[in-house]
Amino acid sequence: MKKSLVIHPFLFAAFPILFPLISTRDTFQLLRDERNHQFDISTYVRRLKTVRTEEFKYIWASDGCDELYNIRLDPEELNNLIDVKPEKARELKALLTEWLNSFELYRPEAAKQVQ
C-alpha cells in the first residue's frame, strides 16, 4: 500500500520556519492562481469534531457535511457511509454530543469569583 503525505499550501505560509525552502510568495500564488481549479480553500473553512469506535468514525462538520466511515473495512476513509447508515451516524453523533456536554464551560466571570 502506497502512503503519501499531503501538506496544505497554507501551512507553508503560516509556518515558514518549518518549511524554509518553500517560497511564501509561491504558496500564495498557488492559492490565488485561477488556473488551479482543483484547489478550493473553502472546503477547509469549517470546524470538525469526531468520535470513533473500534469499527466506525463519525465526523461532525460545522458546514453540515458530516461523514461516517467504517474504519475497519475502509481504513483510508474513502467511502462515506453517512447516507447509507443514518442510524449509526445518529448514534455516534449522540455519543459525541454527550461527551462534549460532559465538559464544564469556561466562563470568565466564574473564574474571577474563584480568585
Folded structure, characterized:
With 115 residues, this protein is of the alpha+beta class. The chain folds into two domains: 35 residues, no CATH class; 56 residues, Arylsulfatase, C-terminal domain (2-Layer Sandwich). Helix content is 33%, strand content 13%. The chain contains four helices and three strands; from the N terminus they run H-H-E-E-E-H-H. Strands 1-2-3 form a three-stranded antiparallel beta sheet, with helices on one face. A hairpin with a 3-residue loop joins strand 1 and strand 2. The longest helix has 16 residues. It is globular. The model has no long low-confidence stretch (mean pLDDT 74).
Task: Briefly say what this structure is.
This protein is α+β, with helices and mostly antiparallel strands and 115 residues long. The protein is built from 4 helices and 3 strands; from the N terminus they run H-H-E-E-E-H-H. The termini are far apart.
